């Protein structure tokens, strides 16, 4: 695990923007007169009523309430919805939807290899948008996404920019204030510090949206959807038994962390690490962990982990939307 240097752009996020190429994330179009009603009955957030330009964070879950995928949803027009999903095959996203497609007039189109998709975050917002809002300009969609945090632990906005007719580099070249490109290791470090989950470490069928603090992807008044009864019951009766948390260790111990390591408290295994930051970022979380919790009000413990070399202490903090 390499230390951050002063040249690293994550250390100056309060003064600049960085860009990350998200070409490996799935993009799917749902097209046809029944596209809205079809996705509305399958997903956790509202698709109807909606108009061109409306957007939100949305999710697909199984009958057991477990997470299939998380995606950014944009209403392109009355008969077309854009889903920008996880770093997985767009064909898998389409296949899951297709199993529920019966008589509806809907066409599923995997456009993951078309155009560019970029995530940009930092201190200089590239659009005047609130979280989950979007703007459509020709072939380009700009959507406000998750909040990241800077080197001073202050929230900073991120934006997804998708253009079906332009590459990632061409998208960035058109910006008035071109950002600095970062590689995957730095993006992972920033993602984990902000408590943002991803596929396959957190976005998988081991967890439900409430356990991952993905409340923004849920609409409580929309009615039935696949897995809705499970999610409503967990929410109504406060039945969550685990939750995703930020995990921090001392700097010398950071290089010992590994995904899947067990977390021990009072001689009991209470969870495990799901993601580990490639770099140690001072003052920031170094990993994400899913831990057992009897209630949301229960204080988070100071726990230990047994690594190959020694036992280390780990502290937790809750993820705030």
Helix amount, in percent?
A: 10-25%
Q: What distance separates the N and C termini?
A: 28 Å
How would a textbook summarize the main sheet? 6 strands, mixed
Please write the string of helix (H) and strand (E) elements.
Answer: EEEHEEEHEEEEEHEHHEEEEEEE
Mean pLDDT: 92
CATH homology superfamily name of the largest domain: Probable tRNA modification gtpase trme, domain 1
Number of helices: 5
Strand order of the largest sheet: 9-10-11-8-2-12
Outline: globular
Q: Domains counted in the coordinates: how many? A: 2
Number of strands: 19
CATH topology-level name of the largest domain: Gyrase A, domain 2
3D architecture notes:
This protein has two domains: 2-193, Probable tRNA modification gtpase trme, domain 1 (Gyrase A, domain 2, 2-Layer Sandwich); 241-318, Aminomethyltransferase beta-barrel domains (Elongation Factor Tu (Ef-tu), domain 3). The protein has 321 residues and is mainly β. It is built from five helices and 19 strands. It starts with a strand and ends with a strand. A hairpin with a 5-residue loop joins strand 4 and strand 5. The strands form four sheets. A six-stranded mixed sheet has the order 9-10-11-8-2-12. A six-stranded antiparallel sheet has the order 14-15-17-13-19-18. Strands 4-5-6-3-7 form a five-stranded antiparallel sheet, with helices on one face.
